[in-house]
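Why do we care about 3D structure at all? Because function follows from shape, and shape follows, mostly, from sequence. That is the central idea of this module. The next example makes it concrete: a single protein chain, its amino acid sequence, and then its structure expressed as tokens.
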Amino acid sequence: MIASRARGSLVMVDTREVSVYAGTTVFTRMPGGYRAGSLREIAQRVGMSEAGLLHHFKNKSTLLLAVLDHRDEQSRQIVNFDDADGVETLRALVKLARYNASIPGVIELFCTLSAEATSPSHPAHEYFLRRYEYVRESITVAFRRIADEGRLIREIDPYRAAVATTAMMDGLQVQWLLDPTSTDMADALAEFFRGYVRGYDLDALEQLLDARAAGSLVNGEGAGAVASL
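And the structure:
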């Protein structure tokens, strides 16, 4: 009896996961995206009836939220907001931007839905409210850690830096979707972070050292000035 239940549970989990993958495919690859994608099409891809699919997801909105949660889970595999090193968190966001360039359909779905979800009646409205709150808070923590280390270049509030980062990432995605040749999302985001963080990467560190060296020569301080890095 226990083994039978275990097998049944496994089938249920697998069916649900496969349905999420199928939903992602339909919502991101079919013309019209989420609005045009139907539960019938998704059920056919999974190899079940529409009624069978509704056993796992009570409606299309519920399946949409599962698709969005799956996308967030993939992002969390790349970005660890619990990393004690705030700079590493920012570097992970750049890696995420580079990964996003490999999944244009998912990014298009996200951008379209995030705009539509500004309406309180949209099925994903509460999801995006919670998601942006979580992202802002998590990036704020990263910038606070960077500030505590004395590595923020500008006197800026970590929360405002987090808001600017979120807006930067979203704006880059829209520009890239409209014209993929217009920008490299990862490179642009890294350049953005170099403007905030001392020694963000090797390029930023070299620029900082050059600037410190030039200032030392002008002020007659000598090479020891780089010790404050």
